[in-house]
Backbone:
């Protein structure tokens, strides 16, 4: 077992125990300015795992024999702005597509315990696993989740609680088909459920996104930089990730400042968090897809 596998497993166990501890003690979440705290965590720690996309972009430019490195940033920002524009015109459709894409992304990126099993329905099981991030808050905190959708200009009037239970069950079952190491994969899913039982949707998502998904993805990037020396890999990751993380965080802050003129602060923050994440997620996933497709060919 490599050091990174050990770190991932210790990390999984720690988060599971913490979420279980909070659930058993029914720790109250009466935190002042929780929305602002979640915003700063997501805008910094949360988005940091995608801040090395420019390195992947450089590889892609080399594949397509494009010498101008600036073109990557322009294309990346262009795709992000398209998502924002689509959301303003077709919020329901854009949110639906985003949740589908994000579910698959979460399921795939969080499946790190051994190689992902490849078979015809593996993509469906990865989607089901990742969909728990959306299904759990909708089931355990329905009213609060629907209120977030309304703030995002999406009306969500009807839902079937029985269907949600079935989908949550299928999400848990999917762990048995994705990785050989079922226990640790299942612990992740239980952590998500415990977080959403005990915490309001935004806080539960923030804890998951920043301290499970982002940390795990960052660990894989650190391993790519130095698979033998964790400290060296971590330092290199921080140096390379810091510039774009700061730029993204500042962009989020500017967006909140601009929207605050038209919406109350909490609504402005929620719009920036979720529409902002959607605008970053699509080009991030597209970039990884294109690189994976090329690597398979070679």
Residues:
């Amino acid at each position: 077992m490599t050091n990174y596998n050990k770190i991932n497993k210790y990390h999984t166990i720690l988060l599971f125990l913490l979420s279980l501890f909070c659930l058993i003690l029914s720790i109250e979440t009466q935190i002042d300015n929780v929305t602002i705290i979640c915003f700063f965590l997501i805008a910094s720690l949360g988005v940091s795992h995608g801040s090395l996309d420019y390195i992947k972009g450089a590889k892609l430019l080399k594949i397509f024999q494009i010498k101008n490195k600036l073109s990557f940033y322009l294309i990346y920002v262009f795709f992000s702005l398209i998502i924002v524009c689509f959301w303003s015109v077709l919020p329901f459709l854009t949110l639906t597509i985003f949740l589908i894409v994000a579910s698959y992304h979460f399921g795939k990126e969080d499946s790190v315990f051994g190689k992902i099993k490849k078979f015809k329905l593996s993509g469906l099981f990865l989607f089901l696993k990742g969909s728990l991030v959306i299904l759990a808050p909708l089931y355990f905190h329905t009213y609060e989740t629907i209120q977030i959708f309304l703030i995002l200009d999406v009306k969500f009037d009807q839902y079937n609680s029985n269907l949600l239970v079935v989908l949550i069950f299928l999400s848990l079952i999917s762990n048995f088909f994705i990785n050989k190491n079922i226990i640790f994969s299942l612990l992740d899913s239980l952590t998500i459920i415990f977080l959403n039982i005990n915490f309001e949707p935004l806080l539960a998502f923030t804890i998951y996104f920043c301290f499970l998904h982002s940390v795990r993805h960052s660990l894989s990037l650190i391993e790519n930089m130095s698979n033998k020396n964790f400290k060296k890999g971590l330092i290199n990751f921080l140096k390379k990730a810091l510039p774009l993380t700061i730029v993204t965080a500042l962009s989020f802050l500017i967006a909140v400042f601009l929207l605050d003129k038209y919406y109350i602060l909490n609504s402005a923050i929620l719009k920036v968090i979720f529409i902002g994440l959607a605008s970053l997620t699509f080009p991030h996933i597209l970039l990884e897809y294109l690189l994976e497709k090329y690597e398979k060919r070679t």
Q: What stands out?
A: The CA atoms of residues 149 and 155 lie 7 Å apart.
